[in-house]
Design brief:
Blueprint (H helix, E strand, L loop, with lengths): L2 H17 L17 E6 L2 H5 L12 E7 L2 E6 L2 H14 L3 E2 L7 E2 L12 E5 L4 E7 L4 H14 L3 E5 L4 H8 L14 H17 L3 E6 L2 H5 L24 E2 L2 E2 L16 H16 L6 E4 L12 H4 L3 H18 L5 E6 L18 E5 L33 H12 L6 E5 L13 H11 L9 E7 L8 H11 L5 H6 L1
Parallel strand pairs: 1-3, 7-8, 7-16, 8-9, 9-12, 12-13, 13-14, 14-15, 15-16
Antiparallel strand pairs: 2-3, 2-6, 4-5, 10-11
Helix pairs in contact: 1-3, 4-6, 8-10, 12-13
Length: about 500
């Protein structure tokens, strides 16, 4: 009765029909008489097959493939895991999904029923395995990418912002492209497309991440789905809500999404938490809601009340308030909090009252990709925080020092939010070096005390090849994968 299992059945039957064109293949027991039957099921694999017990079978992916004479089973710890198992079965049969889009699939022709006999058991090495939308993308670009994700073992997709308008508008407006005429792309069209994308994510059982930056601008009454400056000035009644900088309260460089607030102001606390709770109350399909502050640094409020504490402490207070309100409403949605810019420094006094609600996201945006992390027994102390005078860490040891400082206080679920295909890939014209760094980074994640990886990236990063995302997906699911093997494939 599951739509995800039905989709998995259709996918399996569709590919097998292409691989064995002379054989009649159906799904959902349309014919009782069959020479070969594969059953798809959600099972307790630990109890039934003595596989590794999972911390959370809904979030952690595990599957078993057993087929032989007469058929067999593809079973998973959850519905998404069954789909992942279907694609792994097709991989074992020789299928390769080399890039988004059916035109980039390599599908072999099988001649013997014995070719369908396979045996495989797998448990995902890491819980969080996803990609976040950036760049310029058409609706079909994004759907093709979402369709591709589970074929490589990914389990989540992040539709950044409350409405990922800017990433689609860049495409349909054909920004910086003199060869195509700009198309009309109103916000209403983006809302329509976003619902389609959310349905595509859920159809495959993928975990939906949403939002991120923008809450600060929204609290000031300005919809925030891009980094563009606004011509409007901040209304007088909102002035006291903005951070005080150099004696003035206004938009930071004219950009609402980059503007921090006066987080000691009770009206700010009310408006901020109300924005978050109202948003998630209307969107129960979101699995991970990202609640971040402004996307710019050295613009922290300098008023007397804010100076008495730190930005990370104020951030934790805000998130605890959000948690209380969601708990009162009976909403269990996970909240992702951000280690980024000033928030790389851990709080001095505050702590999460309900740590199970929260997921730590380490975002080393200023790191180098010349090499990968080398895990050490200890790291230098992080520098003293100086309000509105920080510099961002570049080398990998500096970044790790900030993560370790936070991990002394927060022991909950976590992942890294990294940027190898955000900018660094433009300096690697063959995509070989950056792919090797991605592989090596992922293999360090467990040692870093983290449980996954979400790539903040241009989706259409496939020139000259798809090696970076290909390596990323397979290695996130199985960190024992050798880079050289995937590269050669």
């Amino acid at each position: 009765n599951s739509k995800i299992l039905e989709y998995s059945s259709k996918e399996l039957a569709g590919y097998l029909s292409r691989m064995m064109p002379e054989v009649l293949i159906t799904f959902n027991n349309e014919f009782c008489e069959a020479d070969f039957i594969i059953c798809l099921a959600v099972s307790d694999l630990h109890q039934q097959y003595q596989m590794k017990p999972l911390p959370d079978p809904c979030l952690d992916d595990q599957y078993i493939i057993q087929t032989g004479p007469g058929g067999g089973t593809i079973a998973g710890s959850n519905e998404r895991s069954v789909l992942l198992g279907v694609y792994q079965y097709l991989h074992l049969l020789g299928c390769r999904f080399l890039a988004p889009g059916r035109q980039y699939e390599s599908i072999p022709v099988l001649t013997n029923i014995e070719d369908l006999y396979q045996s495989c058991q797998k448990t995902a090495s890491l819980r969080h395995r996803g990609v976040c939308i950036e760049g310029a993308n058409s609706l079909s670009n994004i759907i093709d990418f979402i369709d591709w994700l589970p074929k490589l073992g990914y389990n989540g997709f992040f539709l950044q912002f409350k409405l990922p308008y800017t990433f689609m508008a860049r495409w349909y407006h054909h920004e910086m492209n003199p060869l195509l005429k700009p198309e009309d792309f109103p916000v209403e069209k983006a809302e329509e497309y976003t619902k389609i994308l959310q349905a595509e994510i859920k159809k495959r059982g993928l975990l939906l991440h949403q939002a991120g930056h923008g809450w600060t601008g929204e609290a000031l009454g300005f919809p925030s789905s891009d980094w563009k400056s606004v011509k409007a000035t901040l209304p007088a009644e909102k002035k006291q809500m903005a951070a005080l900088l150099n004696g003035k309260r206004d938009f930071f460089h004219g950009i609402p999404i980059n503007t921090n607030l006066c987080y000691s102001n009770p009206e700010v606390i009310r408006a901020f938490t109300e924005q978050v709770t109202n948003y998630i109350k209307e969107r129960p399909d979101i699995d991970y809601l990202h609640v971040w502050l402004a996307d710019e640094y050295n613009n922290v409020c300098e008023c007397d009340a804010c100076r008495k504490t730190t930005l990370p402490d104020q951030y934790i207070r805000l998130l605890n308030q959000v948690d209380r309100q969601l708990s009162d409403m009976g909403i269990a949605t996970k909240i992702v909090f951000l280690l980024y810019q000033e928030l790389l420094w851990p709080p001095k006094q505050e702590y999460f009252h309900n740590p199970d609600r929260f997921v730590l996201m380490f975002a080393p945006i200023s790191r180098t990709f010349e090499s990968s992390y080398q895990i050490k027994d200890s790291y230098s102390d992080i520098p003293e925080y100086k309000r509105n005078q920080i510099t961002l860490p570049i080398n990998l040891d500096e970044n790790m020092a900030y993560l370790k400082a936070w991990q002394k206080q927060f022991k909950g679920d976590s992942f890294v939010y990294d940027y190898p295909l955000g900018r660094a890939h433009y300096g690697d014209l063959g995509y070989h070096h950056i792919s090797r760094v991605i592989s090596e980074d992922i293999k360090q994640i467990k040692k870093m005390g983290l449980n996954g990886y979400v790539s903040c990236q241009e989706l259409r990063s496939f020139f000259p090849n798809s090696l970076p995302n290909y390596v990323m997906g397979y290695t996130l699911f199985d960190t024992s994968c050798r880079f050289e093997d995937i590269r050669d494939e």
